[in-house]
Amino acid sequence: MSHVKAGGTAKNVHNSPGQRLGVKRFGGQKVRTGEVLVRQTGSTKIGGVGTFTSRDFTIHAAVDGVVSFGKVRKSRFTGKTTPRTQVSVL
Question: Per the domain annotation, does 9 fall within a domain?
């Protein structure tokens, strides 16, 4: 027999820390190669000239330069186009 009473279940334990997503370097800022420009879930912003995207959709600077943001229309699989923000390093 057990010598300790049943503890029950905890209902309020699903509390995870924030992921610290968002834009890390803004337009007009100088960046060096490899710096994180945008941390995001999914491809809400797309990389342009002078950038590369890692597996978790983080956009990094591929070259030294100045960050710039612009609007582009991205075609989806269905043929519909949606507006996206494009991050570039020039």
Answer: no
Instruction: Look at residue 10 and tell me if it is in a domain.
Output: no
Q: What is the pLDDT of residues 12-21, one digit of tens each?
A: 777 889 999 9
Distances (CA, A) of 54 to 13, 25, 83: 31, 16, 21
The residue segments making up the domain with residue 32 are 22-89
Whole-Å CA distances, 71 to 3, 24, 31, 33, 84? 66, 18, 21, 23, 6
pLDDT, tens digit (0-9, with 9 covering 90-100), for 23-69: 999 999 999 999 999 999 999 999 999 999 999 999 999 999 999 99
Report the distance separating Cα 44 and Cα 17, nearest Å.
Answer: 22
**CA 13 and chain centroid, separation:** 26
Q: How many domains does the chain have?
A: 1
- What is the rounded distance in angstroms from the CA atom of residue 57 to the CA atom of residue 15? 24
What CATH code is carried by the domain that includes residue 73? Answer: 2.40.50.100
